[in-house]
Amino acid sequence: RMCDGHYFPMSTTEDADAKCAAFCPNAEARVFRGGGVIDDAASADGRSYSAIPNAYLYRTKLQDTCSCTGKGPLGVVSPALEYDDTLRNGDIVMTKDGPRVFQSKTGITPHPASAFVPPDDARRLSRDLKARIKELELAGSVAGGG
Description:
Layout: H1 16-23, E1 92-95, E2 98-102, E3 116-117, H2 127-142
Antiparallel strand pairs: 1-2, 2-3
């Protein structure tokens, strides 16, 4: 995050810039790669992390205007599911369309919409688990969740 130098590790992937933007949509952010330590990592334009004006500023100062979420400096963004590289086949996630089971052929992000299937269409999901998901979905509807 360029406004205060806050950083987090990422796996080396081709879509690192998109992931970075997804984690921090409301602040300018850049990917720094290489080096065993962050000081030696460099951005695409060759600038080292330690050379940016706000390197490590987050350690000593919180700025209300420096936020990934636009809701204060401590806000955390949940990345879009298509960029979540922690997902494993069989994981159940909640979407705006209800629960979905992650079934990726490649595991490479961004995950296509087809990687998220309704529980009834999921491979290798037990009948009991499908029924339990349906119960939870119905309970949420009754409680006003949808």
